[in-house]
Specification:
The structure is a single chain. The protein is α/β, with parallel strands linked by helices. It folds into 2 domains: 38 residues; 174 residues, Vaccinia Virus protein VP39 (Rossmann fold, 3-Layer(aba) Sandwich). Helix content is 43%, strand content 18%. A 7-stranded mixed β-sheet has the order 3-2-1-4-5-7-6, sandwiched between helices. It is globular. The N and C termini lie far apart (61 Å). The chain binds S-adenosylmethionine.
Length: 218
């Protein structure tokens, strides 16, 4: 009975907690939103992204991977352009049903994490056709938290990390989650230069790297 009641209360306050965190993005509100919405980024990680997005807002925000945080990013960047790329159809349907304003594209990376070494040898293999609304823009802030990359049979983040380096605008920011994993670490070191690394923030679900790309073409 108590568990059911807890679930109902959680359901009722989860959505308002997103609005509260958008209006007042301080530690306590962000932490509450994370707990109630089962978001995987930590409060410190989320805050670092919030500060960057707000500093550029309204901005062009591109996110690889839909998540329980998606509605928050959409609300935070009100008046800007926020687009999500997702490769899991079931998850795509579930998250996009939460808000009709969420603009997301279903994509197919056609990769498996186990092929990361072979893909690293040819930039042609890492390229892919993106929706024109994504490809035609230069993005102020890019968050790479997808596709899944926890096992050899998952898509892996080889393409999303490579593409972020091509799509970001000069002086833009790139955040990559799960950089404590081998493939994310290697691809970040190859395509997002170490000199552009601003900060690393640990979290219970993985390490977040923040890059500030001062000159995209060097
Ligand atoms: C790592 S999660 C994003 C997490 C989000 N940024 C957060 O902090 O909660 C993103 C990827 O996980 C995959 N995924 C599949 N099922 C999922 C689920 N039930 N919950 C969360 N992510 C899921 C999606 O394909 C998606 O691209």
């Amino acid at each position: 009975m108590r568990t059911t009641l807890k679930k109902i209360v959680k359901y009722l306050v989860a959505r308002p907690s997103i609005e509260l965190a958008r209006l007042w993005p301080v530690h306590v509100c962000i932490s509450m939103m994370i707990r109630l919405n089962e978001i995987q980024l930590s409060a410190e990680q989320l805050k670092a992204i919030v500060v960057t997005v707000k500093g550029k807002a309204p901005c062009k925000l591109l996110i690889f991977g839909l998540g329980n945080d998606s509605v928050f990013w959409l609300k935070l960047n009100r008046g800007g352009v926020t687009i999500f790329l997702e490769d899991n159809n079931d998850w795509f349907q579930r998250v996009t049903s939460r808000s009709e304003d969420l603009k997301a594209f279903l994509v197919n990376y056609n990769t498996q994490r186990k092929d990361w070494k072979m893909l690293l040898e040819s930039l042609l293999l890492l390229d892919m056709t993106l929706p024109s609304e994504v490809a035609k823009e230069e993005w102020d802030v890019i968050l790479v938290d997808g596709p899944e990359g926890w096992g050899d049979q998952t898509s892996g983040r080889m393409k999303s990390i490579y593409l972020s380096s091509r799509l970001v605008r000069n002086s833009g920011a790139i955040f990559v989650h799960d950089c404590d994993r081998e493939v994310e670490d290697i691809y970040c070191n190859r395509f997002l230069k170490h000199e552009y690394l601003e900060k690393e923030i640990t979290g219970p679900f993985g390490l977040l790297r923040h890059y500030h790309i001062t000159n995209r073409y060097t």
